[in-house]
């Protein structure tokens, strides 16, 4: 289109110059993402390196953990470690960082909410994970779930805001 003035933009990890809104800098969410990434490093690495130890801690049975369960837990640990990447990409107070925060929060929220019926089902069928472990996991998920809902629905300014710098204007 020779006469068109529209400009197509491709997504990029590089961020264009923006002015951060001082009333909504996104610092709170940036730090929350760093803390969550740190927790994920610890938990993911523990699942990968010590799956039998973790399985013994959460199992309803006193018998040795199944090697297949340990292998699957290691896969879950690998996925947990991989999810650190989008968390960290959303940390910088840049255009791309700020724009990715709602997507990262919505994705994490959907994963956490999806675990709740699974935990309830496992509690109902019994003899897999200890009731205490299931209650601890479900309880541990409630804080992040409620936080994400509150931020996404009631305090989206905590994600940060910006205005684009106008070049040549």
Q: Layout of SSEs?
A:
Layout: E1 18-20, H1 27-49, H2 51-58, H3 67-82, H4 84-89, H5 95-125, H6 131-154, E2 162-164
Antiparallel strand pairs: 1-2
Helix pairs in contact: 1-3, 5-6
Which descriptors apply to this entry?
169 residues, two-stranded antiparallel sheet, 6 helices, mainly alpha
Task: Please give a structural write-up.
64% of the residues lie in helices and 4% in strands. The protein has six helices and two strands, in the order E-H-H-H-H-H-H-E. A two-stranded antiparallel sheet has the order 1-2. Helix 1 (27-49) packs antiparallel against helix 3 (67-82) and helix 5 packs antiparallel against helix 6 (131-154).
Individual helix count: 6
Strand order of the largest sheet: 1-2
Helix content: 55-70%
The coarse silhouette is elongated
Strand percentage: under 5%
Mean pLDDT: 90
Structural class: mainly alpha
Q: Separation of termini?
A: 24 Å
For the secondary structure, the number of strands is: 2
Largest sheet: 2 strands, antiparallel
> Using only CA atoms, what is the Rg?
21 Å
Q: Give the low-confidence spans.
A: none
Order of helices and strands: EHHHHHHE
């Amino acid at each position: 289109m020779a006469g068109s003035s529209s400009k197509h933009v491709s997504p990029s990890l590089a961020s264009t110059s923006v002015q951060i809104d001082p009333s909504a800098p996104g610092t709170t969410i940036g730090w929350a993402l760093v803390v969550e990434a740190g927790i994920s490093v610890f938990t993911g690495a523990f699942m990968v390196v010590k799956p039998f130890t973790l399985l013994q801690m959460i199992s309803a049975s006193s018998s040795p953990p199944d090697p297949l369960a340990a292998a699957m837990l290691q896969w879950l640990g690998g996925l947990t470690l991989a999810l650190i990447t989008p968390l960290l990409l959303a940390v910088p107070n840049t255009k791309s960082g700020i724009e990715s925060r709602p997507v990262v929060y919505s994705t994490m929220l959907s994963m956490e909410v999806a675990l709740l019926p699974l935990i309830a089902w496992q509690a109902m069928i019994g003899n897999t994970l200890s009731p205490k472990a299931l209650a601890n996991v479900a309880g541990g998920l409630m804080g992040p779930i409620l936080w994400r809902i509150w931020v996404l629905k009631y305090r989206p300014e905590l994600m940060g805001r910006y205005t684009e710098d106008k070049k040549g204007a």
